Amino acid sequence: MNIGIIAHNSKKTLIEDFCIAYKGILSKHDIYATGTTGRRIEEVTSLHVRKFLPGSIGGDKQFTEMIERNAMDLVIFFYNPNMIDSKDPDVMTVVMACDRNNIPIATNIGSAEVMILGLGRGDLDWRLNVKSSDIV
């Protein structure tokens, strides 16, 4: 499955820790991330991450375009609701794109852990059916 990961600057360390903790599950899937987040995940986990541009220079748009094509199966987007910076990726654009395409999205550590554990158990395998029905 295609897992999209994005994090605002103030949440980069949290996403690194999350990816270290769930490296075993993440290693079985294709990981996509905005540039800086992807690079940092690769550095701490040695996982291969397909990287877009940094979010501030268009990576968030590339990320959202993949969601709009229904090519992501799960999105983890750690953002800081108390510190929204115009340079950070737009949270609502990503969330609404996920909602339009029935792509599960986690925006905090609690929901991300539930989803990643569900992914590990096969609870998100229904996404494979959704994508195959788009092809027909």
Present the secondary structure layout.
Layout (H helix, E strand, L loop, with lengths): L1 E6 L4 H10 L1 H4 L3 E4 L1 H11 L3 E3 L7 H10 L5 E5 L12 H10 L4 E2 L2 H13 L4 H10 L1
Parallel strand pairs: 1-2, 1-4, 2-3, 4-5
Helix pairs in contact: 1-3, 4-5
What can you tell me about this protein's structure?
With 136 residues, this protein is α/β, with parallel strands linked by helices. The protein has a single domain, classed as 3-Layer(aba) Sandwich (Rossmann fold), CATH 3.40.50.1380. The protein has a five-stranded parallel beta sheet with strand order 3-2-1-4-5, sandwiched between helices.
Features:
Rossmann fold; 50% helix; alpha/beta; 136 residues; single chain; 5 strands; five-stranded parallel sheet
As a whole number of angstroms, the C-alpha radius of gyration is: 14 Å
Mean pLDDT: 90
Broad structural category: alpha/beta
**Ends: how far apart?**
19 Å
- Percent helix range: 40-55%
Number of helices: 7
Kindly report the oligomeric state of this protein: single chain
Q: Which CATH class applies here?
A: Alpha Beta
Strand order of the largest sheet: 3-2-1-4-5
